[in-house]
Specification:
Elements lengths: L1 H11 L11 H34 L31 H13 L1 H6 L2 E6 L2 E6 L10 H18 L6 E5 L3 E2 L2 H19 L1 H5 L3 E6 L2 E7 L13 H14 L5 E7 L15 H17 L8 E5 L12 H7 L1 E7 L3
Parallel strand pairs: 2-3, 7-8
Antiparallel strand pairs: 1-2, 3-4, 5-6, 6-9, 7-9
Helix pairs in contact: 3-5, 5-6, 6-8
Length: 327
């Protein structure tokens, strides 16, 4: 009670109560301090920007002392394989990839690489003697075509092959040369299996067909790969993993209806699809394909032999890997 009386007495004497919080002058002072700080930060930032700008756009060296950048390059010092690269970065990068892939042929003088209209042109020198078209020459050209095809997969621009004696080839001629090279390459890699009668490699127009015999591939009514067949698929996968074109794995059967007992397949349609799918799964676990793989089960709709004999039916039970070059 005494304190309340004292306070009341003080107020009665006319003394005003002190205001709460900081005075108005403190708010004004803090505003000025913030403005000054912002001004100094801005000055520092402008100074640093000017320094960076001077560094970026300054020319190194002393012109009076003869030092600095060289404005002109002696033509004798320019790379010999360079034929006027395009300003397009994709074309330049593609040019480097092709030159690296064909380094051996460029050194031998059989190939020249240049850039023309944002495209990479590979000029293949023709033999001076037309009668010199030997197996060795054909093999060398095959290697060139395959290297170009591999390089094309790694670059984003078009790569065109040209013959020095005849000028740039047409698109149809170029495609034919590339696809024929692929066909010969696949046959070459599967030569041993072809000689043993386990594989056939044929060409039908714009398609390459790798036909696998049924012997040792699957048990009757089953889609489980036999171990021996897996070894054959290793060779096939290695041969076709770098080809250009749409790859379809087709399963084929004979016309004998499948037994519904002891098997999970209801028909030859299911069986043929299951077998082609098993082959695709096996190949995809070990190899990569540019266009992927398609699977098709055709049952007995495309026989290649008579189904009236045991030998004919055995021939019709097969796996075919079709490479369609029209895609």
């Amino acid at each position: 009670m005494s304190s309340e009386l004292d306070m009341g007495t003080t107020r009665d004497k006319g003394c005003e109560r002190c205001p709460t919080g900081a005075g108005m002058w403190m708010a004004t002072f803090s505003d000025m301090a913030i403005l000054l700080m912002a001004m100094f930060v801005l000055l520092i930032a402008l100074a640093e920007t000017a320094k960076i700008r001077d560094t970026m756009f300054s020319v190194p060296g002393d012109e009076q002392s003869g030092y600095g950048t060289q404005d002109e390059i002696d033509s004798d010092l320019a790379p010999s394989g360079y034929q006027g690269a395009s300003s397009n970065s994709d074309t330049n990068e593609g040019y480097d990839v092709v030159v690296k892939a064909l380094a051996k042929e460029i050194d031998e003088g059989t190939v020249d690489v240049e850039i023309e209209d944002e495209r990479i042109i590979v000029n293949v020198s023709s033999s001076d003697n037309p009668s010199s078209t030997t197996a060795k020459v054909q093999q060398e050209q095959l290697e060139i075509y395959m290297k170009v095809a591999q390089a094309q997969r790694e670059v984003k621009v078009g790569v065109k092959i040209a013959q020095d004696s005849e000028g740039t080839t047409s698109d149809a001629e170029e495609w034919e040369a590339m696809f024929s090279a692929q066909y010969r390459r696949v046959r070459q890699k599967l030569e041993t299996a072809i000689e043993k009668g386990r594989v056939e490699v044929i060409r039908e127009g714009d398609k390459i067909i790798v036909r696998l015999a049924s012997q040792g591939s699957f048990k009757s009514g089953s889609a489980i790969l036999q171990d021996e067949f897996g070894l054959l698929l290793d060779d096939v996968g290695s041969a076709i993993s770098e080809v250009e074109g749409l790859i379809t794995i087709e399963g084929h059967t004979d016309n004998i209806p499948i037994s519904s007992f002891g098997t999970r397949f209801r028909s030859n349609w299911d069986l043929s699809a299951g077998r082609s799918g098993a082959v695709a799964d096996y190949l995809l676990t070990k190899y990569s394909f540019k266009t992927g793989l398609m699977v098709s089960g055709l049952a007995d709709t495309k026989p290649i032999a008579s189904n009236n004999t045991d030998a004919g039916r055995a021939t019709n039970r097969r796996i075919e890997i079709v490479i369609d070059g029209s895609f």
